[in-house]
Amino acid sequence: MEIIYEEDATTNDDEELTEKDINEKQDGVSDEESSVDTDEELDDDACENNLGDIRVNESFTSFKLLRKRVKNYQDFSNSVFYKRDCKTIKRARKIGVKRHIEACLKYYSIHYHCIHGGEKFQSKATGQRSSSTFQNGCEAGFNVNVSKDGMSLYIKNTNLQHNHERIKELYHHLPQVRKMTPKLKQKVKGLLKLKANKTRIQDLISKETGKVVLLKDIHNLNYTGEEKE
């Protein structure tokens, strides 16, 4: 499934996955790379559960609806996208754009790119470049622009051809996908305060949400209140 990213963030294989494979894929992926903004819950009723490929001229009357569509597409295609380039409405104003644009659109333009292509990320914590494991020159992506009347965002063009395998198991183990929402974090922290068994918490999360959460994710919340990167 393809995943998509937040403002100015630059920055799967059909073989059986080993723990080593998954760890290699996870190394070096900072929160900047997260293709879907999981810090804010997406309303299931925000838009139709559109599945299938992103289509040229699809339009969205808010950025929230676009994010929901992207999330559905990522889950459908087992691939992750990030915002390789984007321009907010505020920034567009600074360079002379004066026409009316609905504030709920948030962005003037966005270029979404597969995480297996584009620039390499540099960790804010260590200052080191991320592992090259993720980078293989994939050119898959799509562009989103504001419509002429400023009332919607629309898909301007697409390139959905990847140069790598995409598999469901690896997708669900990606840090961007398994990241907990604020609501889920609060629930887990409450259970940890009650000294609940971490493995049972992990099983509960899987049962209630279908989300893959590693024991280390739960362990990190136990001490910091937030997931360590």
UniProtKB/TrEMBL annotation:
Composition bias (Basic and acidic residues) maps to: 19-28
Q: Which domain of life is it from?
A: Eukaryota
Q: Which residue intervals define the domain ZSWIM3 N-terminal in the entry?
A: 55-164
Region annotation (Disordered) ranges: 1-42
- Where does this protein have compositionally biased stretches of type Acidic residues? 1-18, 29-42
By its UniProt entry, which InterPro entries does this protein fall under?
Answer: Zinc_finger_SWIM, ZSWIM3_N
- UniProt xrefs under PANTHER family: SWIM-TYPE DOMAIN-CONTAINING PROTEIN
Write down what this protein is called: ZSWIM3 N-terminal domain-containing protein
Species the sequence originates in? Cotesia glomerata (Lepidopteran parasitic wasp)
